[in-house]
Design brief:
With 229 residues, the chain is mostly helical. The chain contains twelve helices and no strands. The protein starts with a helix and ends with a helix.
């Protein structure tokens, strides 16, 4: 009964925190006020303040986590809406995502080697640009650490959301195709959710890029790791 009450409280608290973060984002519309960033930071601060462990939080958090699958499936609705346009854009999306996947893997490998990280950490960094389940699977099969891979995925997602506007302004890129490919191939589901909030077409392109990137990184990561290691 105690576990049930704790889980219910955590679920309600998480929803309230997210709604509060969403209100702040709608009020100020700054990239650093993105709900995923504000809510994550708030939850971490609360856990530290009250001395609660991750396992305790996941009594309720796991039920929210179970909804990730249906949430990803729901991203298919905008794909259907823009299906004709996306078919015409398929080749540029494929090329852009392929380049993004290659750069994502090689940059992680080369920079982590340059920094002197151990092979264990390098194998955990390599799949940082794909969704958590795929990244954890790649890390496990290559000799990395699954929880560490999940941390790097989160860093890549939030980091991509933060620097995306700067990169877009610097490159003078305004087309939703380019913005969506960049977000989906570099910042996976976190970036895709942000793109979907901004523009359904950009979010649709980001969804395709996210899925393609997961497949491409799964293929590229083992070979490139052997080549550069």
């Amino acid at each position: 009964m105690s576990s049930l009450l704790s889980a219910s409280f955590i679920i309600i608290l998480t929803i309230l925190i997210y709604q509060g973060a969403l209100f702040i984002y709608c009020r100020f519309r700054r990239i650093y006020t993105a709900p995923i960033i504000l809510s994550t930071v708030t939850i971490i601060i609360l856990l530290l303040l009250f001395g609660l462990s991750y396992d305790t939080y996941m009594l309720g958090g796991k039920w929210i986590d179970y909804l990730l699958g249906p949430a990803v499936v729901a991203l298919a609705f905008p794909l259907y809406q823009y299906r004709d346009l996306l078919k015409r854009m398929l080749l540029p999306i494929l090329v852009g995502t392929s380049v993004g996947a290659f750069i994502g893997v090689t940059s992680g490998l080369l920079l982590s080697k340059w920094a002197g990280f151990s092979e264990l950490i390098i194998h955990s960094i390599v799949p940082k640009s794909v969704t958590t389940p795929v990244a954890m699977s790649i890390a496990e099969s290559s000799g990395g650490v699954m929880p560490l891979a999940a941390v790097f995925v989160m860093i890549a997602g939030i980091g991509g959301v933060l620097i995306h506007p700067v990169v877009m302004r610097f490159s003078r890129l305004t087309h939703p195709l380019g913005k969506g490919v960049g977000m989906g191939s570099a910042s996976h589901a976190i970036g895709t959710a942000t793109s979907m909030e901004r523009d359904p077409l950009e979010g649709s392109v980001s969804t395709i890029a996210m899925v393609l990137s997961a497949v491409l990184v799964s293929i590229l990561a083992p070979g490139l790791t052997i080549l550069f290691m």
